[in-house]
Amino acid sequence: xxxxxxxxxxxxxxxxxxKIGSGDPLVLIHGFPENSTLWQQIWPELSERFTIxxxxxxxxxxxxxxxxxxxxxxxxxxxxxxxxxxxxEEAVIAGHSMGGYxxxxxxxxxxxxxxxxxxxHTTAYxxxxxxxxxxxxxxxxxRKGGKDVFVRQMVxxxxxxxxxENHAAAINRQIETxxxxxxxxxxxxxxxxxxxxxxxxxxxxxxxxxxxxxxKEDNATPMAQALQQCYLAxxxxxxxxxxxxxMSMMEQPAKLISDLGTFTAYxxx
Length: 269
Ligand code: MLT
Description:
Distance between the termini: 26 Å
Low-confidence stretches: none
Order of helices and strands: EEEHEHEHEHHHHHEHEHH
Largest sheet: 8 strands, mixed
Number of helices: 11
Bound molecules: D-malate
Oligomer: single chain
């Protein structure tokens, strides 16, 4: 049974997260433009071995932050507050894409709580100037009433050709979930990503194992970029998936369950 919990703290009028299962804790942080249900295909099996904690980042689901501008550091703080609320001192932290930027910030600020860091279709590099400009243009489109068009196109492009041909209905369901996000949340997320620093040093100095999940057909975090970073930590688990774009939790769920399970068990052994 997945439980949806909420609580409040000083800067967060509401923090919402999903919890399922028992065992060593594995945190799953969603990306953009998603919420914690992103992981729903993989949490049933993983929850047989681990306690799955999947927060909604501020602006997604019911989570609200009122302490100023959103940043990936605030996203990391959201995760820390959830773990504190749950009385969890150490967890494997897995983050998908934007959730990976938050996971890297978490590992930077709370290394003693990081038992392992799983980077799912993400990067430790900051945005290039070109990428920042693309995001600013997207913000302009969203602000001019183009949210729906932007979301449909953006989410549609996250999948491999094989998945697009065979699983159009699943993509449409994901698009509908993304369309629920308010315009302000999309803009806040994009500004947070524009402003995030690179965190390659977190990898180089990691006292914990690091996992890389890479899609061969990922247009959002190209394989070539991930391959430049996936040897920087001392202990690296690297998986490259064929027929996979940016969304292995939907495109290759069995592989992701197996790899996340193996990694989390290793980190807690
Ligand atoms: C995501 O999936 O979270 C986004 O593609 C991240 C990004 O745009 O950098």
